[in-house]
Structure formats: C-alpha cells, structure tokens
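Thread title: Can someone regenerate the structure for this chain?

I was given the following input by a collaborator and told the matching structure tokens would be attached. They weren't. Posting the sequence so someone can regenerate them.
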Amino acid sequence: MTRTGLPGLITFVTWARLLAASSLALLLSSCKEEEPADEQQASEILAEAYCVQLFDCTCADSAGFTSGEACFATLLQQLRDQQADAIMASLVYDAACVEQAIDRIETLACSRGPADLTTCHDCFVYHGLLPETSQCTRVGPFSTCDQGLTCVTRQGYDGEPIDVCEPACLRVGVGEICALGGPGYQRVFDCDEGALCDVDVAGVCFALPGPGMPCLDGVTCAPNAWCDSSVATPICAALKQEGEGCTTDLECASTWCPSAVRCVEPFSEGTPCVTGEDRCDVGLFCPPDYPFCYPTDAIVCQSPLTGF
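Best answer:
Regenerated them for you:
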C-alpha cells in the first residue's frame, strides 16, 4: 500500500494551521521542541503525529480511516472536545506530557509485537491537584487527581464503590505491601508479574507457585509453569519444550499443542498454514485467501487513537 493521502494530509494540516495562526510547522521541524507545546496547539500536534505515523505504516485497514485528512479531522475534533472538558473542569495543562504521548507513538512506530505496546503511563496532559487517597472525579481520559495519579474505583468499608486517587502505574514486588487500610476504603496495588496480592491476610505480594509446588486454588501457577490436575493434588509442572507430548496449549512454552500431540513452535513468515488450525508467530497470521503465515497490520493500524 502506498502512502496515498499524505500530500492531502499536509495540505489539510497547513490550512488548519493557518486558520489557527499557529506555528506548528516550526515546532514539528525540529527533532524536539525547545519550548513547551502551547496548549492551543496540543490537539493539532498530537493528531498530526499520530496520523502521519499511521499512514507511514503499510496498513490493510488504517484504523478505519480512509485518508490522512479523515484521520486528522476526526482525531483533532475528538482531542479538542477532551481539552474543552478538561478546561471546563479547571484542570492543569502539562505540555511535557504532550511530548511523551508523541514519543510513545514514535517508539511504537510500525511494530507488530504486542509487547511493544505501552499499557500504562502516568503523565497526563491535563490533571487536577488532589493528593493520593483523595476522592476524585474522572474527566474523559483525565481526572481531578494530581499529576502521576489516576482516579480508580475501590470498595469502601461500607461496601459501596468509591473513586479515589492512586498512583497510575505502581506495581510492587514479592514481599512488599500491596494492601493496606485507606481513608474509608482498602488500598490495593498491583503486584509484579508472577506475583499476587494476599489481600485478605498478610497484605503483601507473594510469588505464584512454580514447578513442583501445589497449584494455587488448584488451578494457578507462575508464568513458567502449568497446573497438572491429573493428580489428586494438582501440582505445578515446568512448561514443556518443543517436541514434548502435550494435551493442551497451556502445557507448552510455545503456547501451542496442535491436535493434542506435542508442543510445536508457531510458524515463521512464509510457512504454509491452514486458517483456523495452524498458529503463526507473533506479528503474523494465516489469511484465509493466502495459505502462508503473513505479517499482521502494525499495532498502530489496528485501532484509532482515543485520546491523549
């Protein structure tokens, strides 16, 4: 797919900038802006950065947009609406977070690997001033919490839900406190991967059972193990390697046990495949009209940006 639509995008964006009397072209011409992004230009800057990146990738379906102009116009209006709501709620603008949002887009680029997708960020273009544990209000993708905090729903001691400010991306390690009393509710933090919070007893993160240990609640094991329930007391077993016998995908390090026979590595690009039966490697899929493992759309192609 060629980059059709980009010349039109540039023309459209230039027209939009002239109407707004902005200096966006100068801002985007440098590698990094020496001056913070002006609040009135924030929506234009982010919309253009995303749409240019979207149409720079080869997409079968560019997040549902038929052209760069359509992408820019739709996203610009959406971001301006979010800004208007934030300003109406008297939230504080943080220009540095606009740059972080663009950095995330540029870093992701045309990646097809889900692991490259940033799942959490704690820099909000708009934020409030309420400190940690305060009751809060959500304003679109933002909240009345201070920078670095997000508005989450917890259960109060009275059994009713309560929205409070908590650290946006905090994860605690094994042996660290993950549950403690808060003002009117129990504070609970996520544990690192492979650990679980003992909410009801010790209030600390504990490691999930590994190979040779009884399965937690008879079903759960650490990421490097699977729960063998064929014995009286289900036991966590080490993941099986390629060629070892298996009955389910969960037993295999490759996550694939075709026909319940043996663990097999997913197919590489160009390998013949059968849609609905074979599994292609990360970033690949088996098209029904082309029986070979073929690259998926880049992550940026798969769904439109929904906000800052």
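The helical segments are 6-20, 24-29, 42-56, 68-88, 95-108, 299-302.
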